[in-house]
Amino acid sequence: MSAEEREAARSMMEKGKLGQTPEQQRAGFDELFASRPLGDDVTLVERTLGGVPALDVRVEGADQDGVILYLHGGAYIIGSARTGANLAVPLSRRTGVPAVSLEYRLAPEHPFPAGIHDALAAYRELAGQNVVIAGDSAGGGLALAVLLAARAEGLPQPAGAVLFSPWTDLALTGPSIDARGDYDPLFSRANMVESAELYLGGADPHNELASPVFADLKGLAPLLVQVGSAEVLLDDSLRLVARAAEQEVDVSLDVVAGAPHVYQYFAGLMPEADEALDHAATFIKNRLRDKSVGGVA
After folding, report:
1. Spatial separation of the C-alpha atoms in residues 9 and 245, rounded to whole Å
2. Which of 134, 226, 230 is nearest to 181 (CA)?
3. Which residue range forms the structural domain that includes residue 131?
4. What gap in Å lies between CA 210 and CA 213, rounded to an integer?
5. Is 165 a known active-site residue?
6. What are the Alpha/beta hydrolase fold-3 domain coordinates in residue numbering (predicted)?
7. Residue 3 — very low, low, confident or very high, per pLDDT cuts 50/70/90?
8. What CATH code is carried by the domain that includes residue 30?
9. Annotated catalytic residue: which of 92, 101, 137, 195?
10. Nearest-angstrom CA–CA distance, 296 and 294
11. pLDDT at residue 82 in the model
């Protein structure tokens, strides 16, 4: 990642920095991301999935077997199915697989575990299909929570899960929370503490559904984790991957030097972002293929 690319990404992310209230944060985030063009080959169609509002992400030619369930990021308090479509679309376009982006409930109006209930309800409706779950930041943590909740409920695991810069530790115990603070243009310990408190609503931050880095991960679906070295959530990914490997989960990790939080948003600007999406698409296609022929999910 060149200095020019890093500065361009930093400038974009500075514009989306968290505001003082959830309403301000949502307005700023939507201004930055909900209006981004998706392409003339894309149609978004409102639907419900397990009783939860969602958007069908229809990319021309994306008619292969399977479905990508996308869970947007936004610290559990901002973001929408439309902002999630910004990453669901390139995944669908690269894989040829249809996608759906979920409008799960947000805190503080709907604190933990409301979003998990919504995401699990959506997955429950899709569980008979060939599914990969993907999510960024809080959506990555939510994807892991769905895997854990599905396992507890006796539902089959999805074919795999793709996690972009997942937030896996709401107790904020990772060293990078402070060590990367000067490099991360979006997050600081202070605004992450605030977001975690709004989401948790008094719940224990060590609860495994809130902070999957502390969970028993045995038996979960294969994972692909991608993270940038410049973000405060770096250790959320590194510790998750180490724990998953120790517990014999099929897990892969991509760390991109100097890349910011959810750098995949900068496809077309950062070559590393396009490469990451290409790798994620390969993972998704391979997992869906293996699941369809009876491979381990």
Report:
1. 32
2. 230
3. 3-292
4. 9
5. no
6. 68-264
7. low
8. 3.40.50.1820
9. 137
10. 7
11. 96
